[in-house]
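Late entry, evening session. Most of the bench is empty. Finally got around to the prediction I had been postponing all week. Sequence below, unchanged from the version circulated by S.P.
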Amino acid sequence: MAEAPAAEAPVPAGVRALPRITGLSTRHLTIPLLRSWGEEAPENHVIVTEIRTDDGGTGHGFSWTPTIGPQAVKALLDFDVAPFITGLEANPEGVWDQLWKRLHEAGGGGLTTIAMAGVDLALWDLQARRAGTSVTGLLGQRQDSVGVYGSGVNLHYSLEELVAQVERWVAAGHSAVKIKVGKPDIREDAERVAAVRTVLGPGRKLMVDANQRWDLPATFRALEVLGEFGLEWLEEPLRADDLWAYRRLRKHSPVPIALGENLHNIYRFRDFIEAEAVDIIQPNIIRVGGITPFRRIVELARAHSIRVMPHLLPELSGQLALTMAEPTLVEDVEDASFEQLGVLDGASPVQVRNSRLTLVAREGLGFDFQQPAPVL
């Protein structure tokens, strides 16, 4: 059976108690993409969350999924999460730990952690607003700016469309870009990567992402062909769960191996790191369950000298990247930020110029999503 929340100790005299959660509300946004990610992903889904507390405070967050399960995430939040967290102190880390234990019966990651992110982000937003600062400021900003790389979901692009996209990134000042690979014929991948390298020249970084399209023999064949193009990393060539294969791949790969967008909790990241199966980890802040677990995963990686490159969502990832002690790059998929998609109530809390991301000082997470138009 699922565990009940632990009894909370009385607050010592003179210590101010945290407010308690009085409610959680959600709404589902379907956001058409300006540049389709292919037939299987023409849109993204956001579950907007709002947490209320007994002192009148509110915190705003969100869960996100590009394709699978937005209705399931919303139902989990509405019917299981909301009743459980009501009455708890509005402490992000304390709530996260109790909620993960509660939901673990339904799975230790995936839909459960995606739902948990909506709670965790709202609580950090609430706490930062109470302190009169940004989430970045609350956590401790360590960098004035961080690098950004141009990224595209572009395997379905023609060669001409791909080259034009890379030319736009170069014109925008990006010093690093990432493209998709995984065509049925590796020779077509080689043609596309060669064309991109020609546009980039030798001084810019080039990464490739296979999105789990290959098995181990196919990956080794691909590396024989693509390794000559000076790749910064090869991302997720194999099934994300296949630790055994990644361990073998990294041992023999001439190109650094990156993965993590489809790992959902700190234990899986620990397994891949300790197995020496990865060079670069790419946690998605929403998929791992929010800011609380993301920070723990970053410190785990840092203790093992593993680089961290946050996955997608630059308005969120960029703010957390500014709190990291080690250099990193923020992924910016062309025309896919929330600001570019036109769904924010106001401007973005981050700015990207000349391949660098900086923070625009605002309280909390610094953004919320537009309200639906009233029905007349």
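Two things to note before I forget:
The chain is about 35% helix and 20% strand.
The chain has a mean pLDDT of 95.
Will write this up properly tomorrow.
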